Amino acid sequence: MRIHRLFIAAAAILAIASCTPVGGNTDAVIERKVEQLLVEMTLEEKLGQMNQLSPWDYDDLAEKVRRGEVGSILNCTDPEQVNRIQRVAVEESRLGIPLIVARDVIHGYKTIFPIPLGQAASFNPEIVEKGARVAAVEASSDGIRWTFAPMIDVSRDARWGRIAESLGEDPYLTSVLGVAMIRGFQGDSLDDSTSVAACAKHFVAYGASEGGRDYNSTYIPERQLRDVYLPPFKAAVDAGCATFMTSFNDNDGVPSTANRFVLRDILRDEWDFDGMVVSDWTSVSEMINHGFCADAKDAAEKAVNAGVDMDMVSEAYIRNLALSVEEGKVPMKVIDDAVRNILRLKFRMGLFDNPYVDMSREDMTYVPAHLETARKAVEQSVILLKNDAGTLPLGDRIRTIAVVGPMADAPYEQMGTWTFDGEREHTVTPLAALREMYGDRVRIIYEPALAYTRDKSQAGIARAVNAARRADAVIAFVGEEAILSGEAHSLANVELQGAQKQLLRAVAATGRPLVTVVMAGRPLVLTDEADVSDALLFAFHPGTMGGPAIADILLGKVNPSGKTPVTFPRMAGQVPVYYGQKSTGRPALSEEMLVDEIPVEAGQTSIGCRSFYLDAGSTPLYPFGYGLSYTTFEYSGLMLSSDTYGMDDDITVTFNLSNSGPCEGTEIVQLYVRDLVGSVTRPVKELKAFRRVTLGSGETQAVSFNLPVRDLAFWGMDMTYGVEPGAFTLWVGPDSATGLSADFTVVKR
Ligand code: NOJ
To answer: Most exposed among 82, 153, 633, 638, judged by the fewest C-beta atoms under 10 Å?
Structure first.
């Protein structure tokens, strides 16, 4: 009999004796099981648990697993293979410790949801949670019990390809939606067979990679780290996120994979995290390239001593740490604590009791309920950026439509970045959906003009123009292929690639109403596109159900409600551009003289000495939180419950929201605050609350928010966290740039 079964039996008796529910894995029971197993383990077996491999050769893997040299595998999605390897771990290794099987399930497993940045545009934690639940149900049915998501790096740089995987630029929005994803993945209980352990990544500051170049250095001082980059991770810990992943970047000279300050002092000591920390893919050995470690042994020592429990695929731990322990460079307690964290997770996941995939399970991939949830997620994620003269929705009088552009019928591309398991055959494109919805009623002339988004050949543009001339309206589907965003896919030019601009200009010149639909992985610079289009819809890569949801929006069956989760720049040179910037001593004025207006030989100081670009001004093309609807909303009657508050008070904010337009619609109401004077400078605005409110035409609703004064806290001059008394301004409105405002004061009573 395997030794662990004896432990479990003994632990079960203890559990009954201490009145825990039979079979109940309470924390205390789990801790006992962990300790009992730990004392049986050799150092080699401990290091084996700390080793994660991505197998190529399953026979070789089986051997390693049999010898207890592997604690986890990633990227195995064949349930039979998962069971085969798991059987070796459970029945043939000395201690029978099950493996935990991991996979990047970032925005869906088979049913692909909008990329995370798209989901963030919904500002809807419920739909985000449902999406993660769908992903968990589908992935766990193939044996995947651990996903490397959510990615909660606050991301403010459109050039950085990984902005696609993020939940946007705002720490609060990222926190709320990150928590929603964790809930969805992990379900009600980690040991449910459909639960997938979440992984908060990348810890930390990776989103600030210099110049938006992936893997690059960051220079985030502690205050900004704590105010901006850490809050989503703290929220993840509070939500019970099972694991954390370190990031590739070095911050101020210290690679995250060896950053004791964040991994031990903050994560463990301040936040009490008792989950498991995994490195990123070879980020342990990459510390040699960083010039931070001399060799793999040095890297393994620095990583494990800093608090990285599991080494993802670099094998630096398994190859070196036995010697390091013998030499006294790594204390045995450090190894034991890492193994405790790993075993605790496996017990919490119920893997000792249920290690195998149930091969008689029902196939849950692409079931109608999952497709429906994905469709809803797209509906709520699409952002209407421009709609002149009610161009959208397309009316009943349309008889012929020209559909042009390389993204109209690109099933693979619309799935977006890092989707290893989604299948193009299951993806419905806008062209397919429009054909299905219009049937014989409307003639669709399809002329893609470009074969793919980077296509520079203009040979097909004439045909698209010809199609436009014969149509009542043109819908141009442009954007980015999936490969242009995501990991390692940074761009210096964040405008449309290939001949897409030429295509748009050419079809616009026909004078037919032009609806441009952009599907992309980042907030592209769309200044020219907005200019030439009558209506502009933006869909971050929408996934499997992108087509039907977008078609419903175009036809007016669904009213768009998404808002920008990141600022859209006018020009790439504005990046990083985000709403929560500091004021500076010379803030830009609303009317600055731009480059074409400056007189020749103007005096050096004649243009104001203000903080703005002579060519791009100071405002973005679309601010954070922006998005239109087919109806209109009016805000009125803002009232605060008082004009003065004590530190423990709650601020009750009320206002009226009216739907003053022609149809039902959903508005994402947003509440921002500015702390006018601080012991350190404060952002010009900070999002503190938001809500989706649905109103029928002509309807008015009183909306109220409860804002606890403690939510105004930040890291002050002396690096303590708290609210500073003084004057504040509060806004409610449709985006970060407009809204009604009121002032209040916080006092120490
Ligand atoms: C590297 C990426 O940075 C990380 O996000 C991902 O989870 C791992 N590779 C595993 O694929």
So the answer is: 638
